Amino acid sequence: MKRKLTFMLAGLFLVTSFTAFAGPAEDRKALLTMYKELFPEIKFDDYIYGALAMNPDAKAQYDSIMEFPPYSVDMEVGQKLWETPFKNGKTFASCFPHNGKNVAGSYPYFDDKAGRVVTFENAVNDCLKANAEPEMKYGSYEMGLLTAHAKSLSNGSKVDVKVQGAGAVAAYEKGKQYYYERRGKLNFACSVCHIDNPGKFTRSEQLSMLPGHASHFPVFREGTTLVTLQGRYRQCAKNTQMPVLDFNSEEYNNLEYFMTYLSNGLKMQTPVFRK
Ligand code: HEC
After folding, report:
1. What is the pLDDT of residues 224-271, one digit of tens each?
2. Is any ligand 1 atom within 6 A of the Cβ of residue 226?
3. Are 163 and 261 in contact, with CB atoms under 8 Å apart?
4. With contact defined as beta carbons under 8 Å apart, do 119 and 107 qualify?
5. Buried b (16+ CB within 10 A) or exposed e, 233-262
6. 233 Cβ below 6 A of ligand 1
7. Which residue among 62, 174, 208 is best mutated to probe the pocket of ligand 1, counting the most ligand atoms within 8 A of its Cβ?
8. How far is 188 from 179, CA to CA, in rounded Å?
């Protein structure tokens, strides 16, 4: 009996130490090592360019488009939304530290009291609520324009998402599980393309890698169509016949938490052109 107990305790110890080892920091390190081995010529800072980092011609084309972005008029609308005072005279800036400058990189964060992930979009709606204004529809064009401008106030600062405490780690793990789990008719997982096959082509598109997926959204696809990060999840899900979930669903918010953590250390650059 005594022997059996010792054996069980030893097993428990092994399990605990394994869990402690395979945390978010270790995940990030392992993935970055893998991508570095796959693409030794791509600098870490260039991961923000996604698939463009793998194709100098496409990157040159992108650079020239970015000199005079076709979405500058849309960005003016976003700026106006951010700067127009609420009925009480305050503005969005009053809800964020440093008037919203260099703060977007720390979203999403885990709110221990509420027991859930808070995305930047959630913070925008919390701000509206606190100022007795109607909330914006999550995933709407209007909210996309507002967040594109608000996040651009953090351009150049780094993604710096914290995963600390049991609740935060659990949310991160759920997001990770969602990323790796196969689903839908074609039995795809996000990881099949962006972790197992980056650099390869699906039809005409070259597959990007996961780090850098969360540092530059919303994007303007074809230069004019605004797509938010969760909007992009929905597009990939639709293309691969996975279930398309609602904006602001617990699954997508956890997924965004996981993915943004893996973009830590990269420079924010919002918005950008994407094909
Ligand atoms: C069959 C392959 C495939 C699967 C599975 C897939 N994607 Fe994609 N994804 C693509 C392609 C192709 C693109 C466009 C080229 C690129 O940037 O990789 C893309 C682009 C993206 C981008 C935008 C990258 C950028 O910088 O513009 C994000 C974010 C993304 N996918 C997330 C996901 C998520 C989350 C899932 C799972 C729900 C997923 N993808 C599943 C193929 C896939």
Report:
1. 999 999 999 999 999 999 999 999 999 999 999 999 999 999 999 999
2. no
3. yes
4. yes
5. bbeebeebebeebebbeeebbbbbbbbbbb
6. yes
7. 208
8. 10
Within a 10 A sphere around the Cβ of 225, how many other Cβ atoms?
13
> Could you give the CA distance from residue 153 to residue 257 in angstroms, rounded to a whole number?
20
Overall average pLDDT of the 202-224 stretch:
95
236: Cα separation from own chain's centroid: 14
User: How far apart (Å, rounded) are the C-alpha atoms in residues 74 and 82?
Assistant: 13
Q: Which single residue is written with the structure tokens 């949310």?
A: 171
Is residue 51 lining ligand 1, measured as CB closer than 6 Å?
yes
- Residue 201: CB partners within 8 Å, gap ≥ 6? 207
Closest residue by Cα to residue 257 from 191, 157, 176:
176
- pLDDT value of residue 21: 56
Alpha-carbon Rg for the chain in angstroms = 20
Q: What is the pLDDT of residue 18?
A: 41
> Measured between alpha carbons, how far is 193 from 207 in angstroms, rounded to an integer?
7
Q: Exposed (0-12), middle (13-18) or buried (19+): which is 56, by Cβ within 10 Å? A: exposed
Ligand 1 binding pocket includes 202 (Cβ within 6 Å): yes
* Closest by CA position to 233, among listed 215, 216, 213, 211: 213
Residue pair 73/149 in contact (Cβ under 8 Å)? The answer is no
State the chain's maximal CA–CA distance in angstroms: 75
